[in-house]
Amino acid sequence: MTPLVLASSSPYRRELLSRLRLPFTWSAPAIDETHRSGESAEALVRRLAREKAQALTGEYPQHLIIGSDQVAVLNGEIIGKPHNFSAAHAQLTAASGASVNFLTGLALLNSATNTWQVDCITFTVHFRHLSAACISRYLEAEQPFDCAGSFKAEGLGVSLFSCTEGTDATSLIGLPLIRLVDMLLSEQVQIP
Fold this sequence. Notes:
Elements: E1 4-7, H1 11-18, E2 24-27, H2 41-55, E3 64-74, E4 77-79, H3 85-95, E5 99-110, E6 115-127, H4 132-142, E7 161-166, H5 170-173, H6 177-186
Parallel strand pairs: 1-2, 1-3
Antiparallel strand pairs: 3-4, 3-5, 5-6, 6-7
């Protein structure tokens, strides 16, 4: 099997990829993640997923390199990681009773053949109407300050949702495994 490399420093993505029970290594790519003027959210995540994979080709010339990036979009605006309590509280207040679209770019590069597969997977979270006290209790309990959208869907964050829509719930956490398996199968990787 061609060795797998995850182009990410995210512990969430590493945990997700480990669910496939395939051996892999990981390395943090050094890229500029700046959103370009006029670039749509979908174009941004596709570009960043591709650039993350591309950044590791020098170190991993005979590998399948996985790149992924995610943004959250609320009312047509990209929202990022909050990094602190007050920004997270503001994000969840804005999301209360609304819907947030999560776009996850996914790229698989066969660095030996320079063969690319790139996609964007969308997942929508519909939020309950949340009181300020509910938001504060949640943030104090889970501290999701490193998560776009200010929640952890794999944890207590699910209590904030009224429902979700999408083909792959793992895309919400940052690595769409269903689509990734399709890509890996096309590279003759046997799963399971």
